[in-house]
Design a protein that fits this description.
Blueprint: E1 2-6, H1 13-24, E2 28-30, H2 31-41, H3 44-55, H4 61-72, E3 81-84, H5 90-102, E4 107-114, H6 117-125, E5 127-130, E6 136-138, E7 157-158, H7 165-179, H8 182-188, E8 192-196, H9 201-211
Bound molecules: adenosine monophosphate (AMP).
Amino acid sequence: MILVFLGPPGSGKGTQAKMLAEKLKIPHISLGDILREEVRQGSDIGKRAREFMDAGKLVPDELTIELTRKRISDPDCMSGCIIDGFPRSAVQAEAFDNMLDEMKLELGKVIYFKVDKEQVVERLSGRRSCKNCGAVFHVKYKRPKVENKCDLCGGELYQRKDDEEKAIRTRFEVYAEQTKPLIERYQKQNKLAAIDAGGSIESVFSRLLSVVGYGRN
Ligand code: AMP
């Protein structure tokens, strides 16, 4: 089953996608993670993407469309995957429909993470990421065992440039203008399932499990 996670920055899509992917044993495809890895490696794609990402803007559609097409063609995606952070614009959504058609794949559900802006700003400004493996922590809600060190690999934690206040503002604007309109598109296609993404990581996860048919009773 192909699942798409849609929601404003800081709505917890990435955290929840990782947890669900582990439970369902399917890959978690995060376009943000893929792009950050390209930047880290200093590839041509990374060099093109970097300034857009640091400013909180969308990188050019042709980059994310090709990266997604390539990744979902990998054999480990044959029994499904969770795509987090794509599509994020009407052009990407159109290209996504076409690529699924070509590959004879069907979109299962688009999960829309609904959360109010205040919570999201707190989540983003307290977020810390591992420089080495990309694991995500939070100064209040998901503290690392040792301050500023990643629990998984011991790497140094840092604040993403796009989690600084100015970029957060831009990311919200971009989300409202370009990504939010996709909600209507998927509603019309009967694919949309909205969940309340406020509250603790565990409470959101249990709502998510219900929506994808693995509810805990
Ligand atoms: P994320 O980790 O999902 O918050 O993404 C971080 C940044 O990567 C975004 O602010 C964009 O600059 C870029 N990005 C991720 N996904 C996309 C996408 N589908 N289209 C364009 N840019 C993206």
